[in-house]
Amino acid sequence: MLEALRAQVPASTLYVGERLDSDDRVREAIRLATDRGVALLEVSRHELDRMTSDAVHQGLALQVPPYRYAHPDDLLLGIEDAGANALLVALDGVTDPRNLGAVVRSAAAFGAHGVVIPERRAAGMTAGAWKASAGAAARLPIARATNLVRQLELYKSKGLAVVGLAADGTVDATDLEAAVDPLVLVVGSEGRGLSRLVARTCDFQVRIPMLSGNESLNAGVATGIALYEIARRRSDEHR
């Protein structure tokens, strides 16, 4: 719970076990919650066990409200008015909340305007994803698409290139000329990669060059590398 508070995960209530020894960890959690206006409630150990379904809680539990997703059509609003080239990240079948959080963190760090995830069979913005995002989820809109392929087609109609990240891509990420144009970077799961329909929707696919024989990168790491290359090329373009 302390890590979640440090990561600025939105919370409504911090539950503290009765007669809990007030060590440095507990004192910091209470201070962070108080500073953010999070309600503090003292409850019995039995009640904490019930609330957490008997998970390991160390005497603390944090109530997190449901994440408020943006609409995927709204991610482009205001970008052109701000004089910026659109940069979105779409995830296809990424089911690990930690990878989702890592992608959100990288997207915020390298100038993306939003992240799109499917409504089904994909990780959502859980407390674990919030923690992995290191607070970036509070600054970057995350949208859920009912149909990812249809949403990507809509972005294409708005003038964005749809670029898939794949191990067998035909273009190195370091040679991505479209990086300076409005684009959507689509990232699949580590094990399965891009689904067939999503891969067909992409205008082309890029790869991250690696030494022969190396294992594939997880979605969070791969996205960070690709976004760095896009940000680097965009920066060079404006020098």
Question: Summarize this, please?
Answer:
The protein is α/β, with parallel strands linked by helices and 239 residues long. Helices cover 33% and strands 19% of the residues.
List its traits.
239 residues, alpha/beta, Alpha/beta knot, 2 domains, 10 strands
Structural description of this entry:
This protein has eight helices and ten strands. Helix 4 packs parallel to helix 5. The longest helix is centred in the last third of the chain and has 19 residues, at 219-237. It has two domains: 2-63, 60s Ribosomal Protein L30, Chain: A; 72-237, Alpha/beta knot. It has 239 residues and is an alpha/beta fold. A seven-stranded parallel beta sheet has the order 6-5-4-9-7-10-8. The protein has a three-stranded mixed beta sheet with strand order 2-1-3.
- Spatial extent as radius of gyration: 20 Å
Mean pLDDT: 88
Discrete helix count = 8
Elements, N to C (H/E): HEHEHEEHEHEHEEEHEH
Number of strands: 10
Neighbour order of strands in the largest sheet? 6-5-4-9-7-10-8
**Amount of beta strand:** 15-25%
Principal-axes shape call: elongated
Question: How many domains, in number, for the residues?
Answer: 2
* CATH-defined fold name of the largest domain: Alpha/beta knot
Relevant CATH superfamily of the largest domain: SPOUT methyltransferase, trefoil knot domain
Unreliable segments of 5+ consecutive residues: none
> Ends: how far apart?
44 Å
CATH class wording of the largest domain:
Alpha Beta
CATH second-level architecture of the largest domain: 3-Layer(aba) Sandwich
Largest sheet: 7 strands, parallel
The share of residues in helices is 25-40%
Helix/strand/pairing class, anyone? alpha/beta
